[in-house]
Design a protein that fits this description.
alpha/beta; TIM Barrel; nine-stranded parallel sheet; 16 strands; globular
Length: 492
């Protein structure tokens, strides 16, 4: 497997953390015959970065720039301070990020991270265009993949049976792959038992709010929850992952419970019930968790509802996930733009977007491109590689062709990276190309209309204004009293 360097062709000026680069939406195909890095090349890049960190740390002293010879009376140059293990790890991760300007990956459950399933997933990374795996490190019940001591929380978080992720991560590293740790945040029955003060009160039952799956919801206004997620994320980076992907970073909405019956004890005093699902809580909390991961040198992404790229209510369908605000603080955003999860007529597609996979993804990606202009995050959507039997006859049978249509729509909107979700880790392997090469077309903004199966229905892109403080300007005077229920089904 070979590779060459590529230029970052992201539109606009991107705000970045010092020393942190990120994948481009699109790259020049002519300059990149193959983007896969062999393990040997990756190792060489990492070694060079670590040596550079060691050599540039501290005052090196030495030669006079004028060429004068130092006399014996000159003070000796101070010895350089050796870089800390944390600084060396950060240099290693930055070098690895430079080697992965495109991410194309698959989801792996916690229980697929060993044995034959893991061997097969790693083989796909080794032999196809795939170069990344997103692995569950913390699931909805609150269990984590290996026993870890998380600062401020005892007893140790219960593990899923791994002694350490080292062996599985080494396999992926040897295949030239990139490791992403998926960490669920606002659903956690274990933390709810340890800290009942962090839960959402359900007045309808007199106890904490539980989802349809039985797991307990935590309060997004509680900063302790976000710091706990950040601590688990930092632990994943120290254990060898390249990136942390936070999931369930939202409020429960109408699809989860009667929101009018919920009490958020950590919301600012005096917050009206109709305004409690404020994007401020999600923005503030994710920013804090991201800071903790970046302190270990890690890259940070977040999973968002696909409706963030369609719905313009102030609280974004009750989730509090406002695209622009999160694009300012995340390194990458992964909207779950599953055609089966949209509603009838969304993007002007009838009878339902599930019957138009290409047009659905194209519409969402157009929205993402326009609304990400000049912001930090790169776009890396989750695409569906699963059927939707809960929709009955409305949903066509699942097929590899439907997956190909979604991937092509991503490329046609000038985006190179994507992730595939299948809850059982059974993927349509015939859609994977042999080589990882740039395939995205040049993107030309088209904010006035969205291509669809029929005539334009008046749906158009909205770009929200940003105020002088860098926050999105939102109008709360027309806050909705209730939010529509999202389509049910599997989501990451």
């Amino acid at each position: 497997m070979q590779t060459t360097a590529a230029n970052d062709d992201h539109l606009g000026t991107v705000a970045r953390a010092p020393g942190v680069s990120r994948p481009a939406h699109s790259l020049d195909p002519g300059e990149c015959p193959s983007m896969k890095r062999t393990p040997q090349v990756l190792a060489s890049l990492v070694l060079a970065a670590v040596i550079a960190a060691a050599c540039t740390n501290g005052d090196q002293g030495g030669n006079d720039p004028t060429g004068a010879v130092a006399t014996s009376s000159a003070s000796p140059s101070p010895s350089p301070t050796p870089p800390s293990p944390q600084e060396l790890r950060a240099a290693e991760l930055e070098a690895r990020r430079e080697a992965f300007p495109i991410i194309r990956g698959l989801y792996s459950t916690m229980h697929s991270f060993w044995g034959e399933k893991w061997d097969h997933l790693v083989k796909l990374v080794d032999t196809t265009e795939l170069n990344a795996l997103v692995v569950d490190v913390r699931e909805e019940p609150g269990n984590v993949a290996w026993e870890m001591e998380v600062e401020g929380h005892t007893p140790p978080v219960p593990g899923a049976g791994w002694d350490s992720p080292a062996e599985g991560l080494q396999q992926l590293l040897d295949a030239g792959g990139y490791a992403i740790a998926r960490i669920v945040c606002m659903k956690d029955s274990w933390l709810a038992e340890q800290r009942p003060d962090l839960t959402i009160d359900n007045r309808a039952t007199g106890g904490p709010l539980k989802g349809r799956d039985g797991w307990t919801w935590l309060d997004p206004w509680a900063m302790d929850v976000w710091e706990y997620c950040g601590a688990v994320g930092a632990e994943a980076i120290r254990a060898g992952f390249d990136e942390v992907q936070f999931d369930y970073v939202r409020f429960p909405n109408g699809g989860d419970a009667d929101v009018s019956k919920l009490r958020f004890g950590h919301a600012p005093e005096g917050t009206p019930q109709a305004r409690v699902q404020d994007p401020t809580a999600i923005w503030r909390g994710l920013n804090r968790a991201a800071e903790m991961v970046r302190a270990e040198g890690g890259y940070v992404s977040a999973d968002l509802f696909g409706l963030t790229l369609y719905n313009y209510e102030w609280n974004v369908d009750g989730t509090g996930q406002l695209w622009e605000e999160l694009a300012m603080v995340m390194d990458a955003l992964s909207p779950m733009v599953y055609p089966s999860h949209y509603g009838v007529g969304n993007f002007g597609l009838l009878p339902h977007p599930v019957q138009h996979p290409y047009e659905t993804i194209q519409g969402a990606m157009e929205e993402a491109r326009v609304r990400s202009e000049g912001l930090r995050a790169t776009i890396r959507p989750w695409l569906e590689d699963f059927g939707s039997p809960w929709m009955g006859s409305l949903s066509p049978p699942h097929s590899p062709g439907r997956v190909r249509e979604q991937i092509q729509a991503v490329y046609d909107k000038g985006i190179e990276s994507w992730l595939l979700w299948n809850a059982t880790n059974r993927f349509s392997e015939e859609v994977f190309e042999a080589e990882l090469v740039p395939r995205a077309k040049e993107w030309v903004p088209d904010p006035e209309q969205i291509p669809g199966a029929g005539p334009n229905t008046g749906w158009r892109i909205h770009q929200l204004p940003v105020g002088p403080d860098g926050r999105v300007v939102t109008e709360l005077s027309e806050a909705p009293t209730e939010s529509p229920s999202p389509t049910s089904g599997p989501t990451p």
